[in-house]
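note to self — DONT lose this again. spent like an hour looking for the file last time. sequence + predicted structure for the chain T wanted, 145 res
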Amino acid sequence: PICLFAFLLFCMALSTPALKLKFVLLVFAAGMSLGTLFLLWPLAEITDRCNNSTATAGVIRGQLSILGVANRYSACKEMSPEERAQQRQYLSYITTAVTGIEFGGVLITKSLVMNICYQFVAAFPVVVAVLQNAAKSLELTAKTD
């Protein structure tokens, strides 16, 4: 819904003749699109904490990786043989299961969010140029009729 609203603002910006209003609408559309991406970043960090296998992942902020901590305690000598078997079973499950946050079946990862950001930055000037040319051609068509 946010992206659709941003797209509508973007289309309104291209169709308006007032330069100041056009600029304001384009800034709002770009801000909403980037804001959506920044909302996805904390969700990608949660997915990273679920899947990162290093025990010290995110230690700078006091956050540990679930899989990393489980790996760290897999060689604990104080465990009984039953506990070790349960630990191995848990590690087997957690390494094969899809863990993290999904939207519509898509796992939200840091690489996904960064890829979307790169695509947005690369595509934005092209989309602006194409839509501006379309708006100009519609104006010319309307003037000739």
